[in-house]
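Narrative progress, year one. The postdoctoral researcher (J.K.) led the effort to move from monomer predictions toward full complexes, under supervision of the PI. The following entry was the first complex the group processed end to end, covering 355 residues in total.
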Amino acid sequence: MSNNGNHLRSWEERWHPLREEWVIIAAHRQDRPWNGETLDRSNVHLPGYVDDCYLCPGNLRVSGKRNDNYNQTFVFDNDHPCVGVDAPVEPAKPNSFYRSQSARGIARVVCYSPRHNLTLAELDPAEIENLLKVWQQQYIDLASREDINHVLIFENNGEAVGVSNPHPHCQIYATNFVFKTIETEARASERHLRETGHVLFQDILKAEIDDGRRIICQTDTAIAFIPYFARYAYEVYVAPKETHASVATLGPWELNELANVLKTLLVKLDNLWRMPFPYVMALHQSPTNGELHKGFHFHIEIHPPLRRPNLLKYLAGPEIGGGNFLSDTAPEEKAAELQAQTSVHYKGSALVGGD
Ligand SMILES: [Zn+2]
Ligand SMILES: [Zn+2]
């Protein structure tokens, strides 16, 4: 066997302080760099209204209920929820050490706009700001309920993440349980505060601002960056700079700037390959189970599944078999690609404000 055959690959592990796990960065593992080919999907024209879309204004849903003739956002209880208020109070007890408990909750759908063909990236900053206000109201309404211990607001965007209806919308799961990532983040944040006196996310923001290479855009009060410990190639965090436990307590100016930063970021993602950029977006907010969760800092995580226009990041041996993410790309390089994009959407909508 040659000496080369004995060489151990030199990879780097980066600590993910919120998830409390290592992320393996093997950036040199990537084959030839992406050569700039773009998928120009701008010729895929969707109509503004589709008569059999269950999310368009005035249309009938399978439940037999009819959508309002809404002209901004529209919120309704999901006709096919994963979690339902009617779940049995006590599930059958397993005949072993296995455990079960009842999972209950409220599932809602939020349509971003009456327009069937306008993605979040294409909405005006003012419309995104209005959506943030809807998220505030939903969080406040649902969090105040006795049996609701967590409110997960998320958007699955694009066929790559399994979305069948392109009408732009997000979903809300308000549940009696707390999702695992949020539980881990809340625990890590509390411990970091106890041990160092610092808010964990503030230390992340300080590290990112001091370094600067991974920041995509920012204003006085809001920021978007690919974190040092990103698991996906184009994973971006969008957050207010001040610590808030949830979106609910953001002031008017913070909402305005957060909307602008989110808009700029989504436009840059779309511009990268001149196609609607698929992603899973989730708001990470403090659990609402009556505990304090000191040090929790609300943020939005955007996880795009694509590494290149036609190449999905497959979860395989390291992730499924071993339980740690292996990233083939350096977050610094991916951030530079996004920084280089303009903040005017390739389809032509102009951006007001944001940097
Ligand atoms: Zn529609
Ligand atoms: Zn998070």
